[in-house]
Amino acid sequence: xxxxxxxxxxxxxxxxxxxxxxxxxxxxxxxxxxxxxxxxxxxxxxxxxxxx
Amino acid sequence: xxxxxxxxxxxxxxxxxxxxxxxxxxxxxxxxxxxxxxxxxxxxxxxxxxxxxxxxxxxxxxxxxxxxxxxxxxxxxxxxxxxxxxxxxxxxxxxxxxxxxxxxxxxxxxxxxxxxxxxxxxxxxxxxxxxxxxxxxxxxxxxxxxxxxxxxxxxxxxxxxxxxxxxxxxxxxxxxxxxxxxxxxxxxxxxxxxxxxxxxxxxxxxxxxxxxxxxxxxxxxxxxxxxxxxxxxxx
Lengths: 52, 235
Description:
A: mainly alpha, 73% helix, B: Sortase, Chain: A
């Protein structure tokens, strides 16, 4: 999977590395802002309320 | 073919593991950072608003006010999500100041301590019930189990300071809603005293039980009279 990704990327190794880091950063950003908050709502390991 | 399938599966599993680790970092550290910053900003905004705007009572007493009919007994509850008070707990540190937000949904508890809708307002007869995270999202009630009998919990509103004193604590199940009854633990009874109930998760990092602290109103004073002596750090 990652080997395929590396082969698909254009340019010399440092361009591929830069692109990979950019994509990784975008994935982390998406997780932190959208995915993880949504997941956390369903886990509720820190629910502090009664009732509800 | 099988080798490749195994290889890809392995990479997917490693990726999933990294994502799970990332989630833990986000939940335990990142939410603290973002919520702490937002809560500090909310405290600053409240203080600035209270310092600049005249208190509601002062406005009503102003001679320039038009002769309005007697104010009906309006609902004083702020809109859900609005910060309307600041909680200080000297036991948690002299710099501890967390906004109290109306509502106990996930979003409200990210913004501060949540006020159970329908329960008393600060200083009111009945039960001012509030919920806070013990871990994550700024963890305002992180040290709730360190509170001792007699410790001060000070709540500031636009026009008054209220000092509550911790009386006792309990550990209950999430279904035991009687703890936020107007008379704590005695649902249905008519309240004659002003109480404050804090709820937080228990044990830490679990949603199995709730840690409950009851505090009773000891005194209150005008905001104009400055902060109460109860704010002084504990020994």
